[in-house]
Amino acid sequence: MTDTTAIAADKTDPADLARVGDYFALLKPRVMSLVIFTAGVGLAIAPGDIHPLLAFTALLAIAVGAGASGAINMWYDADIDRVMARTRNRPIPAGRIDAGTALAFGSVLAVGSVIVMGLAVNHVAALLLAVTIAFYVFIYTMWLKRRTPQNIVIGGASGALPPVIGWAAVTGTVDAGAVALFAIIFMWTPPHFWALSLWRSGDYEKVGVPMLPVVAGLRATRNQILVYSLLLFPITLTPPFFGAGGWFYEAVAAVLGLVFVFAAFRVWRSEEEKPAKQLFAYSILYLFLLFAALLGEWAFGRVA
Q: Which residues cross the membrane (predicted)?
């Protein structure tokens, strides 16, 4: 083989790299990143200790399980994803990955993540991971999403479970501190997604997904965003009462929560899309900073 031939043989085919990228896109990496972070915080602040290797394994299993759920969701929703502007370039509707392949890929990852969690960490964390995947796939994706405007409210339970799984990976149980973290994300989910749906309602209406703005109208959605935001505020202040966080977290949660309520109020009183887009963007930062405050206070307590 000549040097030129050897060099050519060593080059990575761009098509192969693109294909790897498409498989990664099936995992919904942006959603996965938030799942990993909240699960990591739950794992870090849980009472007790866990070996770093087991902690990494637990987070990897949670990440893979979340990605598997995303892949199966994309397989099931491929028909409506082809129509919606926000999703039409996903790997399956764009024709870059076969739907059956995506289903097999997601199913193998889902089963594998639960098995690894059960064998390497503990059975409680594995059971919670299995419930999270099953809830997202069967309850939210296949049952609720196309049938009821409460799809986000009920289906939000799956997105709220990762910190509980992280907590259980350390403690082998679920106690009040873990429930407090669950409640925060569960109550945060509706205003977060409804803010998005306010300016994407046309997409959802086109494919027959009964998001709240489509079924109840924009005014009712704005009302619900404000109500859930007001309910979210006191819930974010509860973790320190159950051993998660302290005065620093409480102060951060209060400030961030007041900003969230104000942003929701601006959505409530305005007919324009801009406040809803701003609330949606802030809601992501809000959840990250809220859990970062918990993590930061825990880390400071470890080194102090």
A: 31-48, 54-76, 97-119, 125-144, 151-170, 176-196, 225-242, 248-267, 279-300
CB count in 10 Å sphere of residue 213: 24
Instruction: Determine phi and psi for 153, rounding to 5 degrees.
Output: -65, -55
Q: What is the pTM of this model?
A: 0.91
Which residues neighbour 266 within 8 Å (Cβ) at sequence distance 6 or greater? 275, 278, 279
Cα(36)–Cα(159) distance, integer angstroms? 11
Answer yes or no: is pLDDT of 61 > 60. Answer: yes
Query: Spelled out in words, what is the top-level CATH class assigned to the domain 19-171?
Result: mainly alpha
Instruction: Supply the pLDDT for residue 202.
Output: 87
DSSP codes, the chain? --HHHHHHHHSPPHHHHHHHHHHHHHT-HHHHHHHHHHHHHHHHHSSS---HHHHHHHHHHHHHHHHHHHHHHHHHTHHHHTT-TTTTTSTTTTTSS-HHHHHHHHHHHHHHHHHHHHHHT-HHHHHHHHHHHHIIIIIIIIIITTT-TTHHHHHHHHHHSHHHHHHHHHHSS--HHHHHHHHHHHHHHHHHHHHHHHHHHHHHHHHT---HHHHT-HHHHHHHHHHHHHHHHHHHT-GGGGTS--HHHHHHHHHHHHHHHHHHHHHHH--SSHHHHHHHHHHHHHHHHHHHHHHHHHHHHHH-
The pLDDT value recorded for residue 8 is 45
Confidence category of residue 203, pLDDT binned at 50, 70, 90: confident
pLDDT tens for residues 180-192? Answer: 999 999 999 999 9
